[in-house]
Amino acid sequence: MTAAISYELPSRLERPSAHSDESHAGTRPDLLTTFDTLGLAEPILKAIAADGYSTPTPIQGKVIPQLLSERDVIGIAQTGTGKTASFVLPLLHRIESEKSKPAPKHCNALILTPTRELAAQIVDNIRAYSKFTNISTTLVVGGVRPGAQIKALSGGVDIVVATPGRLLDHLGTGVINLSATKSIVVDEADQMLDLGFLPSIRKVMAKLPRTRLTALLSATMPGQIRKLADDFLDDPAEIKVAAVSKPIERITQSVRHIAKQDKRRVLADILSDKDVHRAVVFTRTKRGADNVCKHLIAAGINSAAIHGNKSQPQRERAMAGFRSGATTVLVATDIAARGIDIDDVSHVVNYELPNVPESYVHRIGRTARAGRTGTAISLCDHEEMPLLRDIEKLIGNQLPCGSEAKEMPSRHSRDAKPQPHAGKTAPSPAPRATNNETRKRPGHQHHKIDPAQSRDGLMRMLSNIGEFTQTAA
Predict the structure, then answer these.
(1) Residue range 107-148, pLDDT digits in tens
(2) In whole angstroms, how far apart are CA 211 and each of 89, 179, 180?
(3) Are 3-241 and 251-407 the same fold in CATH?
(4) Which of 54, 87, 94, 374 has its Cα between 20 and 30 A from that of 183?
(5) Nearest CA among 335, 324, 365, 334 for reference residue 348
(6) Per-residue pLDDT tens for 33-88?
(7) Contact 335, 247 (CB under 8 A)
(8) In the chain, domain spans
(9) How far apart are CA 330 and CA 367, in angstroms?
(10) How many helices (H) and strands (E) does the chain have?
(11) Pairing state of beta strands 279-282 and 107-112?
C-alpha cells in the first residue's frame, strides 16, 4: 500500500535569488526550511553551503527525510524543483556515515537515468556535493569506449550513475556486480518506463539484493506507470509537490496553427526575434532534428542537434557550446533533452508536438529554471490537432493561440518585393466572369460566346480524337 504525502506548494529554488519566492518558508510548520535541520553529514552540509544553497525545495524537504529513514519513495515534482539533490544528498549521507568501501567490481549505490546527458549532470552534482568526502562516483553510459569505465569499476565504486543499455553490457561481461548494492534510484522514472526501458530495468532489479532502498523520481507519474513502479518498491511514500503534470506558472505558453510546409520558415522567424537569447527546439525524430538544424544554420542561426544517433563526444560538444553561449539554439529529441539542465533557456519551441502528452511537460520544463520566466511556443499543423487536444487535457488548460497562420506571409509571398503603397488597403479582386462572359482584359475586345458554336466545336474535337485513336491502333 502506497502512503501518499501530497503537498500543493509553489516551487522554490535551492539557491536564494531575486526571483525566489521565500515568503512560503514559514507558512507550513512541517516544511523543513534549512538543510541544517535535515540531519545530513557535516561534510555534505559544508559542500551545500559552499555552493550557495541554504533552503531545501519542497521536494527536497520531504524526500530527503524519507530516504534518510530508509523508506522507499516515489517523488513527483515539476522540472527544475531540485529532484536531483533530493536523492543525491541522502545517498551521500548514507555512504559517508557507513564508511564502508565497496568490494572490487561492486558499488554501494546505483542511479539509473534515460539519457547520457542527464547521467553526466547527476555525476557533476554528486561530485559537487561530495567534494569534502572521499566518496567515488563513475559514469557508465554508451557512445564511448568502455575501457575507462571497466577500469574505474574494477576497484569498486561508491555510486554508479548509468544508462540501462551500457550497464547491462557490463553486467553481462562481469565488469560489475550488483549483489551488494544497497540503494537504487530511477530518475525520470515515467520516461524510463514509458520509453520501453521496463525490460532493462527488470533485468537490473533482478541483480540487486531484495533488501534495498529504492526511489523513483520524476516530473510526471501517470497512473499506469505507477502500477508498474509498485513492482519495484516496498510500501513507498508517495510525495507530490504541486499539481501532477501541470507546467509551472512562470512559463508563457502558446500555440500557433500553421501548415506543415511553413513550419521551418516560422521557426526561423521565431528564433530570429531579439527576445530569444537561448532556445531549445524539439522534434519527434532524429532525422527531423538534423534537418531542422541544417535549415536554421542555413538561415544564419547558430544551432546544434542532439539525439541518440550522435556519438557521446558529439553530444558533449553540442552541450558545451550551448552552455557557453557559442550555440544559441539546441535542436533535440525528447529522450536526449532529459539531460538539458541549463538555467537561462529563454524559449522552448515544439517544432512537432510529442506523441506522449506527458513529454510536453518535460519539454517546456527546459525553460523558466532557477526562478526565471520562460516562453514555450508550439507549432501545430492540422494532423497534430489530436496531439494538441491530449496535451490540453493533461494540463487542464487550452493553450492560447499565438500568431495565427493568416498573419504569416505564405511561402509564395514571403520573398515578394514591397509595393509602393504597401501601407494602403489593397483593392478587392475583380469579380469572376459569369454568364458565359470572358473576363475583360486590356487590349482584348469584350465579347460573348455563342453556345451553339461551342457545342459544334466540341463535337469536331471529339470526332478528331476518335479518328486519331483508330489510326494509332
Answers:
(1) 999 999 988 888 998 999 999 999 999 999 999 999 889 999
(2) 21, 10, 10
(3) yes
(4) 54
(5) 365
(6) 799 999 999 999 999 999 988 899 889 999 999 999 999 999 987 766 788 999 99
(7) no
(8) 3-241, 251-407
(9) 13
(10) 16, 14
(11) unpaired
pLDDT class for 366, splitting at 50, 70, 90? confident
Cα–Cα distance for residue pair 279/366, rounded to 1 Å: 9
Helix 147-154 / helix 164-172 crossing angle, nearest 10 deg: 70
- Supply the pTM of this predicted model: 0.66
Specify whether the CB–CB gap between 332 and 282 falls below 8 A.
Answer: yes
| Residue position matching grid coordinates 540487486 | 208
Domain 3-241 has CATH 3.20.20.10: no
Q: How far is CA 204 from the centre of its chain?
A: 25
The CATH superfamily holding the domain 251-407 is: P-loop containing nucleotide triphosphate hydrolases (3.40.50.300)
Which residues share a beta bridge with 106? 177
| Cα–Cα distance, 357 to 387 (Å, whole number) | 7
Radius of gyration of the chain (CA): 30
Torsion of CA 342, 347, 350, 354, to 10 degrees: 40
Tell me the residue type at 326: A
Measuring CA to CA, which residue among 119, 151, 157, 117 is closest to residue 138? 157
* SS3 letters across 172-195: HCCCCECCCCCEEEEECHHHHHHH
The C-alpha atoms of residue 102 and residue 135 are separated, in whole angstroms, by 11
DSSP sequence for 328-393: -EEEE-HHHHTT---TT--EEEESS--SSHHHHHHHHTTSS-TT--EEEEEEE-GGGHHHHHHHHH
How many Å apart are CA 378 and CA 309, to the nearest integer? Answer: 25
Burial of 302 (C-beta count, 10 Å sphere; 0-12/13-18/19+)? middle
d(CA 76, CA 338): 16
Q: What is the pLDDT of residue 356?
A: 84
Looking at residue 437, what DSSP letter applies? B
SS3 for 106?
strand
Residue type, 403: S
Report CA torsion sign: 164, 166, 168, 170: negative
Exposed/middle/buried for 52, CB within 10 Å: 0-12, 13-18, 19+? exposed
DSSP string, 37-85: GGT--HHHHHHHHHTT--S--HHHHHHHHHHHTT--EEEEE-TTS-HHH
